[in-house]
Amino acid sequence: MTTILLHKPYGFLSQFTPEPSSRWACLRDLIDVPGVYAAGRLDADSEGLLLLTDQGRLQQRLTDPRFGHWRSYWVQVEGQPEDAQLQQLRQGIDIQHRQTMPAQLRWLQGEEIPLLPERSPPIRVRAKIPNSWLELSLREGRNRQVRRMTAAVGLPTLRLVRFRIDLMDGGDALDLHDLPAGSWRFVTSAEQDRLNRLLSGRVPRPLKAGRGANRQE
Fold first, then answer.
1. Which of 29, 32, 43, 175 is catalytic?
2. What are the tens digits of pLDDT across the range 100-120?
3. Quick check: is 169 catalytic?
4. Which of 117, 168, 174, 176 is the most exposed, fewest CB within 10 Å of its CB?
């Protein structure tokens, strides 16, 4: 089994074939390993951790909404959040006539703010409007969900970076560590052990309200 961790940069589709007439690049410009495909997706304008594998069962396990794997994101938003806005995001937001599932959320301040290199191209900055960093974790993957959620409470997303994928409730996870944007590596033996434990685990009951399978942000 071949399994790869990629730090997908801004401007790349989560696929190896370019879209006709699209301005976005694709993964074949970053990875030259045959037979692997993304287990889950990130939108072209999102960054961060993407797992690629040649094993269909692992792809299915990571994207099937029954399993509800937590995905964690660093989200740079325009504005300074108020308690009511943060609570709305935690409880769930009505998006396209469907309520999102409860989320885990922290407002990052001071030394908690992630030390990331400037994005290329840089984010939009307005001199009189501050920006803030949130750490947001979701168990579902509806289309552009993070951006729709923050926009709904008046905190538009400026930058979105997925930094962790939880594999099991017991704490097994995959994360970016210090993998630079645009770089990839094969999983370590310890990470492969975590994936093996995931595949040997029991199938849970389906998640209820708000479930989604496309795992795209």
1. 43
2. 999 999 999 999 999 999 999
3. no
4. 117
